[in-house]
Amino acid sequence: MSGKKKEIQLQATITNQNEWDEMLLTKGVVVIDVYQAWCGPCIAVVNLFRKLKNEFSEDDVLHFAVAEANSIETLQPLRNRCEPVFLFCVNGKIIAMVRGANAPLISKKITELVQEEREIVAGQKERPEVDELTFLEEKSSEDSIEETVPEEEVTYSVGIIKPDDVLEGHVEEIKQKIRDAGFGIAASEEKMLTEEQIREFYTQKKEQHDFDDFVQFMMSGPCHILLITKKKGTDAIPLWKELRESLEGTPDESGKSERPEETPETESILNMCDVQSSIEDASRQLAFFFPNFGQKKTEQKFEKTLALVRPCLLRERRDSIIQRIKDDGFEIAMQKEINLSEEQAREFYKEHENEDYFPFLLEQMTNGPTLVLALTRENAVAHWRNLLGPKTIEEAKKENPNSLRAQYAVDNIPINQLHGSSSPNDAQKELEFFFPQEHTLALIKPDAAKKHKDDIMQKVKDAGFTISKIKEEALTREMATKFYKDHEGKPFFEELVALMTEGPSVVMVLTKENAVQEWRQLMGPTDPEVAKESSPESIRAQFAQDILSNAVHGSSTREHALESIECIFGEVGELMYRIEGMATAR
Predict the structure, then answer these.
(1) CA atoms within 13 A on the CB side of 68
(2) Residue 299, C-beta contacts closer than 8 angstroms, at least 6 positions apart
(3) Which residue from 76, 437, 472, 507 has the highest number of Cβ atoms inside 10 Å of its Cβ?
(4) Where's the active site on this chain (predicted)?
(5) In this predicted structure, what is the pLDDT of residue 442?
(6) pLDDT tens-digit series, residues 390-436
(7) Which residues are documented as binding site for ATP?
């Protein structure tokens, strides 16, 4: 349904294709801020636009608008961009584009277009024939008006800034050094690396005597992962070596290195950002750390987002809202009902604590169970936000009466009844708040480890688990007895222990939201014959022999997982749960 275009302060809001087509009929110059749903319009240029509007206020020649790329078909090539994009429309045609909040360039372009339009209206010059701008998916320029030139090909390398530099705040300095040396940074992410990821990335160092200590150091805090680029035709790996050599200094005639004066910058650069030593390794690591990089910008991305159904709505219309969510193409990946304490509600909504409605929001969020949902689909964050509609009930009913917040408003309650993450980054943080990462113990039994190890490991990875720790060893009788203590005294107990100790097992710590239950679901029912009927894609349905030799073992509860991890991995397992407990209590 096409809504009416509404003037919000100085910028009109364009929310669909019909309003876009209507905007093209506007006389004069229209400057459109094209934004992504997850980040919103560019606030940095609003003061500039207000100033220009005042300067050119004697006639109605200059107009401003904001348009969400995901909701307008014409803007499809501009979707999934991280930088702001500004379009310039004159006489029904988009004739220029600026990428990035480049205020001087935007101001210069607006001034030129307004002056020219005034001259045309006054009859001082004829309107020139101008070709409409064609949006190209791969165009790139932050500092100039877009021209239709293809983007140069680049090569990619993955770099890791180590935990000590992250902790000491050297990340931005290091990034700038990399850029100054002629490299680009296409993507970056701060994250805790698992032992598996560290050993994989630094496999060339595994024979060094202190490698295990190094792995523990790399797990001691967050690392910063960079996707480093260099224009094709230059070899990114040798150029990176040259950067390191220039920082380390070059030998003089006496054979000593002439190093630059040591500063926190140069010292951290030397040890900061490790990259692979070959193009093959770099390609492998690109897929390992940035698996979705390289997809076309216009492709839909499969995402998770958080949805909250607040207590009043949950009590009155639970089934209706869940059905509506499913009808709109969302899958419910995880869900739980939780009675939030005031402390938890304050923590989750701390950004709103200075708002007038905050006390009422706290009261509403703590007066009964809240339904917490992890929703998945293509571009889930933007779709859910669009489905929710405006934040206030009044605006939702006026501007988008078909939105969920309008249709599921509760009488006599002034705040909306549904929450959605505002960006992919917020979605990740909010999902971790309600669904913290869990660890569980998983074991591939000796017979299955011998015959089906690779296939089972692949199913583990395909299911989205991170293998935080792994080793292959034969269980002692004491270990096997501890794993199956609940079965002690049963007729099959001795046979089960014998099967578990007849050869090496593959023992893993698996990490994921809701890991204990997710792993049990992937394993399938204990009896493989039942598994084949009820869960044909499960591991036991595909790889188990019988009810005792049923391929895999998994912890039944979080407490059981803790005990089992401590039994196999000792204090490291205990530390994992200590960290997780802190996250859960947050």
Answers:
(1) 13
(2) none
(3) 507
(4) 419, 553
(5) 93
(6) 888 888 888 888 889 999 998 888 889 999 998 888 888 888 888 88
(7) 445, 492, 520, 526, 540, 550
Give the model's pLDDT for residue 41.
Answer: 80
Facing residues of 145 across strands?
98
Contact by Cβ (8 Å): 551, 456: yes
Encoded tokens for 207: 């024979």
Is 553 an annotated catalytic residue?
yes
Of residues 63, 419, 439, 452, which has the active-site annotation? 419
> Is position 419 annotated as part of the catalytic site?
yes
The encoded tokens of residue 13 equal 């809001």
Q: Is residue 136 scored above 50 in pLDDT? A: no
Contacts of 223 (CB under 8 A, 6+ apart): 160, 161, 162, 163, 166, 190, 191, 192, 193
Residues 6+ apart with CB under 8 A from 418: 307, 308, 309, 310, 313, 321, 388, 404, 405, 408
Phi-psi region of 329 (alpha: psi -120 to 50; beta: other; left: phi over 0): left
Compute the distance between CA of residue 460 and CA of residue 508 in angstroms, rounded to an integer: 10
CA distance 414 to 171: 44
Which pTM was predicted?
Answer: 0.40
Q: Write the pLDDT tens digit of every residue in 330-360.
A: 888 888 898 989 999 898 988 888 888 888 8
